[in-house]
Amino acid sequence: MIGTTNFGSFPALRMRRLRTRPLLRDMLRAPGIEARRLMWPVFLQEGLKVKEPIPSLPGQSCYSPDSLVEALEPVVNSGVNSIILFPRVAESLKCPEGRSILNEEGLMFEAIRVVKKHFPRLIVFADLDLSEYTIHGHSGIIDDAGVVLNDSTLEILSEAAVRLCRNGADGVAPSGMLDGQVSLIRNALEQSELSDSLIMSYSTKFDSRFYNCFRNAVNNTPQHGNRADCQISRSDSRQALRESIMDEREAADILMVKPALAYLDIIKDVSQSTDCPLAAYNVSGEYAMTWHAQDHGIGNRYALAHEILTSIFRAGADIVITYWANQISQILEYNER
Ligand code: PBG
Q1: Which residue, of 38, 54, 98, 145, has the fewest CB within 10 Å?
Q2: CA distance 86 to 129
Q3: Would you tell me how many other CB atoms lie within 10 Å of the CB of residue 259?
């Protein structure tokens, strides 16, 4: 009689054999976080040489286009290849229809031109949402009851998409979860011979309290009512999946789940249900929460961020949109070795 008969369990099966030799453990380890998979969300404001720290988002600032170029230098050098731009629009430029989104002399357009001039290869997405441009702060033209009018809002957004891409944006990211947002914008881009321009759709966007720090930063909180018509209820995983699948069928280039951390199961569901590249947005509240954790003795913020970003990739995201992108060098220190 020699040895063991049951090879499917202890003692024949010992997982520690794979862990006790450091180089074997290293050989078998899944890839760590990489800068090239991160997209940095950046806030813009008018002016020259302005870099205004954002109180609700420590480590982040609101930049005038020229100072954004300066801020981008180290970020690009650290290996981050893409950004998404959000404008903080002056109150005097807001109107009920958000028409200044079309103004090619405006902040967003200028920033795109300046950034692409200095960093021609950097992938630049323009967030496409009327909420930063409307007086009432809703993501579109609204009726008397405050409900967003889907089709007329998309007319403006399609025109804005064409102009943004003509001015050098690599793509647009429609964020209102309007029905048909991908197909109508795709049509408009095709008709304007912008067939190379990308659409990254906020395809699955939840109604979340984790956006509050962002809303403080750009001042787009709805003055009355909420965005329930433009966002999915947090408990509704079937609708969450359906929305992303619909956008894939409308030829979205990249899908998105937002927020990320409280929705890892949704990231997994979407990544397993579509063949489209998937971005996950590690939103402002998740970032601020992790940042402040260090001040409360919970742990080094970069170590915590490393663990959280790892979980988002592990869930199935191909790209993570994250405010940590400008601090990626500190985070990579925590890649396991
Ligand atoms: C809408 C938009 C928002 C965020 C990204 N795009 C805010 C909103 O829906 O009110 C939030 C991202 C974050 O919290 O970091 N343009």
Answers
A1: 145
A2: 9
A3: 23
Task: Please tell me the distance from the alpha carbon of residue 10 to that of residue 320, in angstroms, as a whole number.
Answer: 39
In this structure, the residue with its CA closest to atom 9 of ligand 1 is: 211
With a Cβ cut-off of 6 Å, ligand 1 is lined by 127, 129, 131, 175, 211, 214-215, 220, 283-284
Each domain of the chain, given as residue ranges in start order, spans 32-335
Q: How close is the Cα of 200 to the center of ligand 1, in Å?
A: 14
Which tens digits make up the pLDDT trace of 61-118?
Answer: 999 999 999 999 999 999 999 999 999 999 999 999 999 999 999 999 999 999 999 9
117 catalytic residue (yes or no)? no
User: Is 49 one of the annotated active-site residues of the chain?
Assistant: no
- Distance from residue 283's CA to the centre of ligand 1 (Å): 8
CATH superfamily of domain region 32-335: Aldolase class I (3.20.20.70)
Query: pTM of the entire structure?
Result: 0.96
Q: Which are the contacts of 132, defined by CB distance < 8 A and separation ≥ 6?
A: 86, 87, 88, 89, 98, 218, 220
